[in-house]
Amino acid sequence: xxxxSCSMSRGNSAILHVQRDEKYVEKMQxxxxxxxxxxxxxxxxxxxxxxxxxxxxxxxxxxxxxxKFNANKKSQHRLNEMIDNYYKHIKSMKPGKKTMKTDxxxxxxxxxxxxxxxxxxxELLTEVFxxxxxxxxxxxxxxxxxxxxxxxxxxxxxTFVADGYKKGMEKRPSINKAISQMRKVDRYKAYExxxxxxxxxVMTELLEKQGDSRLVKxxxxxxQEVEDxxxxxxxxxxxxxxESVSSHLTNQVEYQQEQVNxxxxxxxxxxxxxxxxxxxxxxxxxxIRELQDNSFSINQQESQLKQEVAKLEERAGIEDxxxxxxxxxxxxxxxxxxxWGAAITRxxxxxxxxxxxxxxxxxxxxxxxxxxxxxxxxxxxxYTRPPNINRGSTR
Length: 395
What we know:
Helix 5 packs across helix 7 and helix 6 crosses helix 7. By secondary structure, the protein is an alpha+beta fold. It has a domain of 215 residues: 2-Layer Sandwich (BirA Bifunctional Protein, domain 2). Helix content is 61%, strand content 11%. The radius of gyration is 61 Å and the shape is elongated. The strands form two sheets. Strands 2, 3, 4, 5, 6 and 7 form a six-stranded antiparallel β-sheet that branches. The chain has a two-stranded parallel ribbon with strand order 1-8.
């Protein structure tokens, strides 16, 4: 049975260093770096999760929330507050306003150079990775186990995703709120809770499961004098208390700074709104003055238009009368034209009838003359005929 210490410390994000290969190690060593790395063992490192770009990995986590945020800003006509790239937006924050961090990198290991490490350290570190990877509100961007250095250790890069925000983005990268939501602890003790959970529960239980135990550094003073042991123990307790207080104060400062930043953002929004309102008021005042200046001219134009309308109405009445007379003249002309045509037609018909009747009238006159002549001759012969002896006495 062995005793091994458990450590979890925060490091700097270095994706190329974590996912390194022999070419990268050779290039760095030529620059005088990574002297503690054995290049021939680099190919035995275990990449537990690969990541091509931390920026794309981070943006994918918050894309849905960012789309809703931008849609809300667009509907409010606040296009200047829309965010194109959330990763770059957080990275570009000023130090005084920066309360969010895109990612945290931790180095986890069993044992050390002096104390030694378990023979199955790679398997134990893999179990630690699996446990962290299964936890909610934590997204592991990349992770790798390095065995090309003095002690096997795990690099894990984590983005803490908190949700439930009522203003701004619904989801944000916040380590304190994410851990407090996940572990149900006070947000000011969230970071210490994560370290304690990883070392005291996850790593310790893995050691005890295989028959080993955890070595807590600073407690092995049984061969020293009692007074020295007590003094050192008291000092260690004092240091732990001071670290706890310091951490608590740091979290309070971060929280207060976050509140100050929120108020600053709200103040900036109000300032922009007031500036916009003032600009609109000035614009409206200018428009009112312009309308007032033009009111007299508008009244004059209105009077002139009324006079022109009256003239046009009078002229329209005359023109209507003229139009009516012209229409009557046209109707009379049309009537005369029709009657004239009918008269000409009648005259032509009469001429034709006369031409047809002349011969008939001429022949009739001759027959009447001959009849009259015969009648005349008959009367003459009657006067010359001898009297009828059979007749009675004359009257």
